[in-house]
Amino acid sequence: MIKVLVEQLEENLEEVKQYREQLIFLAGNYVKYDFQALSRDLNINYINVDLEFSRMLLEISQKVRARKAPSIFKDLFLDTNDSIFLLDHIEILFEASLQLDPGKLLEDISREYILIVPWYGNETDSYLIHAELGHPEYFKYLKSEVIVNSC
Predict the structure, then answer these.
(1) DSSP string of 106-131?
(2) Mind listing the pLDDT tens digit for each residue in 11-66?
């Protein structure tokens, strides 16, 4: 099964280069995969966003954290020559206190780097959805200009 996913992603990586936002979401049953192992199989950089981003945010006072969060997130991609990243565990991006727009943030980064992002939320024909309507972390992302690899 992982071999099939690797082959699909290799095709997606070629296809995504023609998009303005080079963003590939993995939705559905993909969430059961070991994405760190997958990144090794694809020879791409793996980032556990919850772990790395929260580590960086701890260095910033809570008073200015929301204002500086977007630039701090972009710092995750500095100091590397890599152009492709697998971003796992992105739940912190939905943290209401950070006041981020996760879709816009990922789109902005994906104009410079190719991003592969496992989506642990729900999926409809048109949207990727994080959390339930009414929840502080509720987020709905239109899938029109990105690749969504579903299984």
Answers:
(1) HHHHHTTSEEEEE--SEE-SSEEEES
(2) 999 999 999 999 999 998 876 789 999 999 999 999 999 999 999 999 999 999 99
d(C-alpha 122, C-alpha 43), whole Å: 28
pLDDT, tens digit, for every residue of 93-111? 999 999 999 999 999 999 9
| Cα→Cα distances 21→17, 36, 67, 111, Å | 8, 23, 24, 5
Q: What is the CATH number of the domain that holds 70?
A: 3.40.50
Q: Which residues contact 135 (CB under 8 A, 6 or more apart)?
A: none
Residues 59 and 69: their CA atoms lie apart, in Å, by: 11
* Domain that includes residue 18, residue range: 2-150
Give the predicted TM-score (pTM) of the model.
0.93
